[in-house]
Specification:
Number of helices: 12
Family: Belongs to the OST3/OST6 family.
Signal peptide: 1-15
GO cellular component, one term: oligosaccharyltransferase complex
Helix content: 40-55%
Order of helices and strands: HHEHEHHEHEEHHHHHH
Low-confidence stretches: 4-14
Largest sheet: 5 strands, mixed
Radius of gyration: 38 Å
Keywords: Endoplasmic reticulum, Membrane, Signal, Transmembrane, Transmembrane helix
Membrane topology: Multi-pass membrane protein
Structural class: alpha/beta
Mean pLDDT: 86
Length: 308
Amino acid sequence: MKALLALLAAPLVFAASPYEKLLKLSQQGNGIIKLDAKSYDLLTSPKRTWSASVQLTALDKRRKCTPCREFGPAWESVAKAWSSVSGDKRDNHFFATLDFDDGPAVFQKLGLSSAPVVLAFTPTEGDRATRQTTPAKYDFSDGFEAGPLAEFLSRYTPTSIPYRDPIDWTRVVLGSIFGLSLLLSLRFAAPIFQSRWTWALGIVITSLIMISGYMFTRIRNMPYTGGNGWIAAGFQSQYGQEVHVVAFIYGLLSFSFLMLVLVVPSQASPTRQRFQVYLWSAVIIIIYSVLVSFFRVKNRGYPFRLFL
């Protein structure tokens, strides 16, 4: 009789505990437990001394869940990083994945209508027990990158997940090539950058753009063109295309004065010198007349005019 009772009690004595079952499933899945409805309930048991990170996804091609496939590598990278933690810490936190086709009832119970979803469960018993009764849900506002995911899950693991972004050798090679190309370009372009005329031209162009109202249009977010013409009425408004027109007018006036001051006096031929005096003087008068007319268009009360 005693032998019979011992035989019947043997399965109870040697039955694996829920923790041991989860540990075995984790080892079989190389650090990621493949869940179904039953193992999900086991992992998220109300009485648990472990924490868990659960990915709910839908990887079957019939589900056409592109985000699920895009997020998969990031999830696996973080789980792989966790597997490198020492056993006393690693075995107190499980990574698990539940596919929709393996547990539709779980999705329905959680009220999920989309995937992927990542939930973090805290222990309910033991030294790490918390009062948090509902799992924390990961916010995908940072995208599907592994770094933000590891940072989020580290709040619920016994120790931080030692995840490091892999070296992007393509970016390193392209960056090196770009750097070498830039150095070579600077070597051959050094005379251009060292020339005072290059800097003078850059300063003149920048000055013309700024005095023509570029910052005004940017600060006020003015449109480039308007429905009632290319000039905005009033001095308190200006279209983006007016910047080009005003810059061209002031630039041409400045260029004409420079020609009169610098180029015309150096002409050896009196005839050529006289012709250029007449030419640039006429340009100044005509362009200045256009500028005054522009003022009159902006403000109908402007009292002055010159030819136009």
